[in-house]
Each structure stands twice: as structure tokens, then as C-alpha cells.
Amino acid sequence: METILVLTHTALSNETGADTGAALTRASLEAMTAGKELAAQLSASLTIGIVAPDSVAASAAASSLASAGARLLAVSGEPFAQPRYASDAAALEALARTANASIILAPASARFARVAAGVAHRLGGFIDTHITGLQIGTAPGAESIEATRWFYRQRVEAVLTRDVRPWFLLLDAGTHAAFAGESASAQVEQVAAQIPALRTTVSGLRSPAQGAQTIRPDAKLLFVAGAGWTKKQLDGQAHAPEAGDLILAFLRVSGASLGSSKSLVDQGGEGQPVLPFLTHLNQIGQTGSTPRHAKGLSTCCHGEEPHVVGWRFIAQRRAVSLDPNCGWTRGKADVVYVADAFQVMAKLNALLEAAKA
Amino acid sequence: MANAVHIVVCAGIVPDPLQTLEPITGPNGPGLKNEMVLPAVLDPWAASALYEAANLAAKNPGSKVWLVSLGPKAKLQQVMMTAAQKVPFELVPIDGPIGGFPDAHSTAAVLAESIAALPGLDRDRLLLFGGWESATRGAGVTLQLVGERLGITDQFYGVDQIDLRDDGSFEVLERVEGGKHQVSVCAGTPAVLGWATGNLAEPRNNPQTGMANMRTIMPALQKARPATLAPNGLRYVSVSLPKQQRTTRVVKDLTPDEIAAELVEWIGAE
Questions:
Q1: A163 touches chain B (CB under 8 A)
Q2: pLDDT for A129-185, tens place per residue?
Q3: ipTM of this complex
Q4: Is residue A33 a contact partner of residue A65, using CB atoms and an 8 Å limit?
Q5: A49 vs A8: CA distance, rounded Å
Q6: How many CA within 13 A on the CB side of residue B193?
Q7: Cβ-based contacts of B24 with chain A (< 8 Å)
């Protein structure tokens, strides 16, 4: 009989959930859904572990999960107000030892991704990460949990299982619905964590020096700028400043998040007068992120397979490109407009501005 | 010499990103078709770690950089012909399997054992570097597991910058949600840093650096110790390529105004 522990944490200012006043991050609530579903399928007991900066926040988080009918554990206190390997590993280790669970689910947030493998090792367990789906195996006589994840940067998909326990599974954000239940008073058990001497001090968050915040994980639309924006245009000249203005104007009126190809970001790093607001954090694809947005609009990209990798989890995809034979678009985008992105984006911005007004 | 650090970079080798990958299942589990003949490169994020390590070592006299890499000897030799020309390092090769499908825990155990046995390594001055995720397994756990095995409890991931201070402490920028960096200050070594892209451009090939490196790389490759990786209960149910192929509508005959209007409607639609 499996026993399931779902690890959660309260929202920091940069995480989804903090802006809505939710006690827990959205990713934590998604892991909660996955845990509840799995527990129901396996008729397994469910425990929830909460990491919070103080007992008040822990209680608030517990109340929001009360309707799940699970055992609630919490580690709270000032050392857990900031994400840090030594303190977070101690917190998760204490929660996992108290729960004595065989399956441990957690969101693949920056906070938990930093420590979960270390905690699995301390418990003599094993870990698999970036899980996008969980199901019960159908082999006769051997009920098993099967996890889906991607290899080779979203180019190969695999379903795997393990017969050793405890098994940690880190769930990618956006793969489950967020848990939503009636808030009620809940009994939460405080767990003491053995924190080693702390040698690391977290001083806060820093935005990229380039100024405008162009990465918006919650945006419905991902706008991808390719290297074509800085190439010579029909008049034989490059128009990087105009390109930058068009892109920033579009982000402002559409609320889209900005992604970029590696080649364009690298040009910025080499000091060329290109798009100064781009950093490596904008980069998607083989050596960048693989964001999840409902829609994606690509412009001036002449990407190969590595670039397509960045679009793996974009549901609806459109592109504006001068090249009707661009390899990345065929079979991968829903619609390709063969046109000059400078002209299209200028018109698009004007229409969106007018609609907003 | 006050801030001399011993930097061990863990870096795997991966198929060149431009290669087409086709998974196959053999007697030892899943792998890639023609994996041994696919052109390989140093793992991109781990390569960033190597360049940052060399940069840090150059700024702090008395420092040293080791590159620990697990893979088939022949493939390691091929990749080193290029990697060795980038920055100075001492290669510690481990002759083992290639690819993303072997278990990360076993990989970490082999790496940790090799690092712990490095002659001349001062573990109090150790900075363990690597990519925060590989381009093969992409799990982001191997370096963490190596760190735990070596007893290092200051670990940082998605690192884009390290500033080593005169007192031995250092500031680290780690990528976190929302396109921001978390800023931390660590009292000093030892620590683990899993690098993202960093801020350095790829160094140009330097034949002199290459020749100096190859003097130690070739003997090291000849003496590379073999390693086998236990599956630790890991079993693959299926391994496949994504099958989704979209029917692309190529629109060639619309004016910018018409395209913009269509995009406005599409963006606004739920």
C-alpha cells in the first residue's frame, strides 16, 4: 500500500499565487491536485507538508487545503522565509521523515527543484523530475505508478516507473489544475527541522539590468523574437532600434511574455547594438526555457529543431516570416504569414492600441 | 593565493543539438539510434560552467580547474579535440555509458567517488560546478546528488553569476520564477553551483591551450576507469518521439493590415 506526501510551500513575491493573495503557490496547488488524484486511484493515504515563514502562514495554507481531508504537517519559522538549500533541505527532510511516505510529490519550483534530489538521497530514496503526467500501470498483477517526462530537451518522450521507495516526483507547472477547495479551520502538526549552521544569506530578488520586465510566466501569449529582427532589411540597412520599439510596444499593449532565440540573445551579449532588453533569461529552446503558454507568436525566426524545442508546450502557434519555406514552421506552426514583421507588427500595435483606447 | 579555489566541473557529452534523434530500445534499455556515431558536443550548460570556472580561476591565482566527464572513451576523445582548445583544465575521464536514459543516482555516485579521489584536491576550497540541467536527461538532479554525497550543503542552481570577494565569501545570482534572479551571499567554499547560461561568450579556439591540455588529456583517457551504472529500480515503459504534426496554413496573399487584423482576432479569442 502506497502512502503519498505532497510537499508545498507558501508564495514568495515573484511566484504565482503571491499576487492573488493565495497562501500557497499555484504550482503547489497543482501538485496537491496530482496527489489527491493519485491517492484516490491507489486508495492510498494522503499527507500534505507545508513550508512556511511562520505559523500564521502555515495555518492559512493548511486552512486552504482542509477540504482535501489529508493529514497536514508544517515546518515554519524565520529560516524558511527565504529559499536556501541548507534550510529547505532540512525542512523537506523533516516533513518526509515524519510522513514516512513511499511516494513524495512536489512542484518543480525553483525552491523545491534546488533541494529535492538532495533530500531524496538523505532518505535513501530516488527522484525523477519534470514529470508531466502520472498514471497507474496496467500490467496484470503489478499495479505500478508510471510517470511521463521528456528527455533530450523535450525531443523524446518517455514513460518510466520505479519499484524502489521512497520515490520523489517533481511535477512541472501547468500539468495539473490547481487545487481549489473550501477554506476551513484545519489541524496542522508542526514538525521541527534540524537546521545546520547556515552559511548562506539570501538578500532578495534582482531583475535583469536591462530594465523592462519582459518575462511574464502567466501571460496567455508568448511572443518570440528571432534574429531576423536585427538583420538588414529591404533597404539594405539594419533597424534594431525600430525593432526594439515595435517589440516593446507589442508587449505593453498585449501583455505577452517575451522569448527569444539563442542567436539573438548572444548578439546582445557580444555588445552589438541589437535589442538591449534581451537577456539569456528570455532565451527559449535547447539551451533556454520551455515555457507553457496558451498561444505563441513567432516573428523573424528561422529556427531549426532546437528552436522548436522551446515551443513544445505552446498550444496554438502562429508565425510571421519572410521565408515561406522556413523549416521550423512547416508541420509545427498552425499558421505562417509570409510577410515583413516590421510592417505587420506596426499595424498590429496600432490596432491593439486602438482597441485598448 | 588567498582566494585560490579548486573548481571541479562535471560535464557530460550530448548529441549535437542539430542532429535528428530517434529513440530505440535495446537489450540494456532505451537509447538513441546510431548514438555512438552521432556528432557530440560538451553539454551546453555544463560548457558555460567550464568557461565560468576558467574565468574565475584566471582571476584568482593558484586556482585549478578539473573537468570530470562520464562517457565512452572514444566519444570523450572526440569532444575533447574541440573543448580542449577553449580553456585550460585537467580532464578526469570516466569510461561509461552515454545518453540520458541511465539513472542519475548511479551517475552521481560514480562522479562523487571520482571527485573524492582526486589527488591534490582541497575539498575546503572546492567549488563544484556543472550545468543546472543536462541536454540529455535534463533532470537537474545529478549535481545536487554529487554535492550531497560530498557533504556540501550550500548549493545554487540556475546560476548566471558568481562574484568572489576578498574575504572568500561570494555572491551568487540564481534564476527563479518570474524572470528574476535570487541574490545570495555564501560565507565561502565549499559550494555547488549548477550553471545556467552565465554571462561569458564561448571562448575562441586557442591551439596553444589545446596543445597544453592534450598533453594530459590523452594519457588520462588511456587510464580512464570503467564504470557501470545500476538502474536503481528504474524501468522504461515506453520511449518515443512526439507524434504531433500540425497542418500548417501558409498565408502568402494578405496585406500587413489584413494579417494584423487576423492576429488581433486570434490574440483576443479564448
A1: yes
A2: 999 999 998 766 567 999 999 999 888 999 999 999 999 999 999 899 999 999 999
A3: 0.94
A4: no
A5: 6
A6: 34
A7: none
Look up the CATH number of domain A221-356.
Answer: 3.40.50.1220
Chain position carrying cell 596543445? B211
Say how many CB pairs under 8 Å bridge A and B.
273
Residue type, A305: E
Let me know: does A321 contact A225? Beta carbons within 8 Å: no
Nearest CA in chain A to B44: A287
pLDDT tens for A47-94 read: 999 999 999 999 999 999 999 999 999 999 999 999 999 999 999 999
Q: Where are the domains of chain B?
A: 6-226
Q: Is the dihedral of CA B29, B33, B38, B41 positive or negative?
A: negative
Q: What is the C-alpha to C-alpha distance for residues A95 and A72, in angstroms, rounded to an integer?
A: 10
Is any Cβ of chain B less than 8 angstroms from the Cβ of A307? no
Q: Tell me which residue of A246, A357, A255 sits closest to A300, measured CA to CA.
A: A246
C-alpha to C-alpha distance for A332 and A309, rounded to whole angstroms = 10
Q: Which of A202, A123, A78, A126 minimizes the C-alpha distance to B154?
A: A202
CATH label, B6-226, candidates 3.30.420.140, 3.40.630.10, 3.40.50.620, 3.30.1330.40: 3.40.50.620
- CATH number for domain A3-190, candidates 1.10.540.10, 1.10.10.10, 3.40.50.300, 3.40.50.620: 3.40.50.620
Q: Which residue has the cell 551579449?
A: A269
- Give buried/exposed letters for B53-75 (b at 16+ CB in 10 A, else e): bbbbbeeeeebbbbbbbbbbeeb
| Count of beta carbons in the 10 Å neighbourhood of residue B18 | 11
Residue ranges of chain A that CATH labels 3.40.50.620: 3-190
Q: Which residues contact A20 (CB under 8 A, 6 or more apart)?
A: none
**A343, three cell numbers:** 510592417
CA of A58: how far to CAs of A5, A23, A46, B183, in Å? Answer: 16, 8, 18, 25
Q: Collapse the DSSP code of A350 into the 3-class scheme (helix H, G, I; strand E, B; otherwise coil) and give the result.
A: helix
Runs of H (alpha helix) within A221-292? 240-254, 262-269
A50 membership: H or E segment, kind and range:
strand A45-52
**What is the rounded CA–CA span in Å between residue B23 and residue B34?**
10
Contact A331 B21 (CB under 8 A): no
Would an 8 Å CB–CB cutoff place A9 in contact with chain B?
A: no
